[in-house]
Write a structure and sequence with these properties.
This protein has helices at 10-17, 21-29, 46-55; strands spanning 7-8, 36-38, 41-45. It has 56 residues and is an alpha+beta fold. It has one domain (7-55). The protein has a three-stranded antiparallel β-sheet with strand order 1-3-2. The longest helix is centred in the last third of the chain and has 10 residues, at 46-55. The radius of gyration is 11 Å and the shape is globular.
Length: 56
């Protein structure tokens, strides 16, 4: 069974992680947080972000 994952914008990712957007941008640009640029805008997998937090 294939489950779809929720894709988040930078605003939604910041809200989920309770962080500022600038911090999310910095982590994403540095490759320290799981995310991808799609047509010039950052997008994040909700499940990947949750796993990233859990894994420390």
């Amino acid at each position: 069974m294939i489950m779809e994952d929720e894709i988040l914008t930078i605003d939604e990712a910041a809200k989920l992680l309770k962080m500022g957007k600038r911090a999310i941008y910095g982590l994403a640009k540095a490759g320290e947080i799981p995310g991808k640029k799609v047509l010039g805008k950052w997008r994040f997998s909700k499940s990947a972000l949750i796993k990233w937090v859990r894994d420390g």
